[in-house]
Every structure is written in structure tokens, then in C-alpha cells.
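Good morning C.,

I know you're traveling, so I'll keep this short. The sequence:
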Amino acid sequence: MTNMAPELITKQMTLLETALQEILGVVPRYMRPPFGEGARGKNLEADKKVQDVLGSLGYVITTWNIASGDAGLDNDYPPYRIPDAELLAKQQNEYNYTINRNPQGAPHMALQHDTYNRTVSLITPWVIRMARERGYKIVPVGECLGDDPRNWYKSIGAPAATVPTVCAPK
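The C-alpha cells, ready to paste straight into the viewer:
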């Protein structure tokens, strides 16, 4: 997003909002920009642009403090696929390292991608067990940030009666 013009960011977010409203009936207020752009402080001027545009659209930018690395590890392409046990061990090391270097009970937001099969089937169940064993409560982003539940969504309505099967700009 840091390389996009403000108008293009607005257009893309508007298309996303339309799709979410039609499919789910809601538009969330929280936005985790791709690659953390706009939230990670890597390029201050470009980050500010993303923050300003998303803020003007009513979004709260969220980011993570546990980068699971699943996007680089959970690869189903055979030459790069690592065994399940190795994938789980790498993920466990990342989570344990981050959690252990923070004060006990400190809040965490983990970055995981639900488009990776083993992240969903192998890593997520372990993360849930580990978090509960350590006394953490898994909550929606808004609750984690202490926001009033009435503010968690930009809009709440009913999904469309029928949803197109092909996405195309209007």
C-alpha cells in the first residue's frame, strides 16, 4: 500500500468493503495492511500516507507482534515443502521466543494466514492450546484493543441475497 496513490488505496478499500458487505453483511473497522505497510515504521512518509488514507476511511490499523512466518514456511510446492514436524517446531520456536521475551500476560497479536492449509490444520490448534495453557484468552481484535464492541464494525447489515461468483470492479 505504501507504493499506491491515495486514490487507489481508497478504491481498493471501497471494493473490499463492498465485497465484505455483500458476502458477510459486515465491514470491519480494523485493518491489517498487507505486509504491515503503513504500520511498521519502515518508510515514515509512505507509512503516514497509508495511515492518513485508512484513517479518513474510518479504519483502525492493526499489526502483529508475533510473525509466525507461515507464509514462507507452509509451502505446498513439493521442492520447498518441509515435513509437518519441522514446520510445527519452527512455529513453536517463533511463538515461544516472542512470548517469553515479554512480561508474563502481555497481550499478543499473531500473524497467521488462513489460506495456508497446514497453518489452519496444524499450527492453529497448537497455538490455541498453548495460549490457553499459558492463561491467555483468545479474543477479537477490538476486545484486545479495549474498544467498545459497538465500534468493531464500520457497518452491520444483511449479506446480499445472491453474491456474484466473479469479482469485477463496478
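Safe travels,
E.
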